[in-house]
Amino acid sequence: MIAVRYYNQLARLFSGPVASELGSRQRCRFIDYIIQQSGYARMIVKGTTLGQMFDDIYWRLWQHYRCEYIYKNALARKILLGRHSLNTSTLLTEFRTNTSKADLVIVNGTSSVYEIKTELDSLDRLNSQIASYLRVFDKIYVVTHESQIVKVEREISPEIGLFLLTNRYSLKKIREATSNALNVDPSSIFSCLRQNEYCQIVRSEFGYVPDVPNTLIYTECKKLFSTLSPETAHRQMVEVLRNRSHSSFLQSFIKAVPNSLKLLCLAQKFTSLQRNSFLSALQVEYKLN
Length: 289
Fold this sequence. Notes:
By secondary structure, the chain is an alpha/beta fold. The chain has helices at residues 7-11, 16-25, 29-38, 50-64, 68-83, 126-133, 149-155, 186-192, 195-206, 214-225, 230-242, 247-256, 262-267, 272-283; strands at 90-97, 100-107, 111-117, 139-144, 161-165, 171-175. The protein has 14 helices and 6 strands.
């Protein structure tokens, strides 16, 4: 058996640093450490590959410790990969907006943000987070657990959508989000973008980028960007964020990784060599050193 106190450590296996090390070295000492410390080593059946082990740990977390990664991965699998396409959609995690970091954003023909509130979470910051998202995104959703649903419904206004991650690992839509694209704040959108992205939009809308020293480019571009209509600013944001995806090589890679690792690999910026190395590591029988 795994002691309850170790589940939060097992959850740390589904992280960028672990994926990065596997992609670079095909081995990760942190995995070995957590497997030993948690007692999970005693449960490994001979012949189990690293990929199969990730899937097994994921489902143990689902049963005993539904952390944020469980919710994010469910959203990635059931909404991005289940309803949309990597050809037309981009998934972004930990996307900074004003004073908040959006748990998960999906950009296709529009923008949708998903704020996750697990059964382990407090709702203290929910209102401020939603206020931040309303300045940037078209559709805002809260994704939560059955034990939180009544409290969440009391906290959020009717235009905010609501999903429930059920005990059967399905996403149940409690209510649809109302479109907010005409109410966004262009200056807040600007602050979410990279320099090459806001310069691209400014050039597209105004025909030029201010010819100023690099130290002033942010300020001068923001002045122009802030004069855009909410609808135009949002539409242009959607276009540039969609370009952050590299769908031409993502599809076959994401299809090949275990279900438990879909979100992790969508969020990780692997090179071609690292993707191949990562897949090779998953196919090898896991043995503690």
